[in-house]
Specification:
Oligomer: single chain
Bound molecules: iron/sulfur cluster
Order of helices and strands: EHEHEHEEEEH
Number of helices: 4
Number of strands: 7
Structural class: alpha/beta
Strand order of the largest sheet: 3-4-5-6-7
Largest sheet: 5 strands, mixed
Shape: elongated
Length: 162
């Protein structure tokens, strides 16, 4: 069992600390359980614990999102677009979705994502299943819906619980 005790930092900083302290040994196969101490709310510690385990690929509890860091080539507001896509798809346990700013490097940097949303031109997006581009130059206004349809067609969609 690996242990992490939170100090005076906020939750997100504590998560970063826990990920650094616990993630490396977990990824090396050391330890199979973690204890996070020092959190006011036990649910918060549980939530962060799941996130650390998912980051180390030991347990999959949520959708996994991969975003590029964004640069001068980025063709849309990466943060806002990622938040929008997350709000539609964050209940899809175990599905990996990449949101990448451009087609120059995006497809190569999507790692092992199941689905990709990649900027292809001003106001347009290419949609991927794995490394394969399935829809080209989809207008941004309809791309979220088309991505959901694509996920559905490939059997990875479940309706969110109300
Ligand atoms: S994927 Fe494109 S936009 Fe994103 S960081 Fe790489 S080069 Fe820049």
């Amino acid at each position: 069992v690996l242990r992490f005790r939170r100090g005076a930092e906020d939750d997100e900083t504590a998560l970063l600390g826990a990920a650094i302290d616990l993630g490396a040994p977990l990824c090396d196969g050391i330890g199979d359980a973690i204890v996070l101490a020092g959190f006011d709310l036990p649910e918060r510690a549980l939530d962060l614990g799941y996130r650390v385990l998912q980051g180390a690929r030991l347990r999959t509890s949520w959708t996994e999102f991969i975003s590029c860091p964004s640069c001068g080539r980025t063709l849309f507001d990466l943060e806002e677009t990622t938040a929008r896509i997350k709000s539609r798809t964050s209940h899809l346990k175990g599905v990996k979705i990449a949101v990448m700013g451009c087609i120059v490097n995006g497809p190569g940097e999507m790692a092992d994502a199941d689905f990709g949303y990649v900027g292809s031109g001003p106001g347009t997006v290419n949609l991927f299943v794995g490394k394969q581009c399935i829809e080209r130059h989809v207008p941004e206004a309809t791309a979220d819906v088309r991505l959901v349809e694509l996920i559905r067609r490939h059997g990875a969609w479940t309706d969110p619980t109300p």
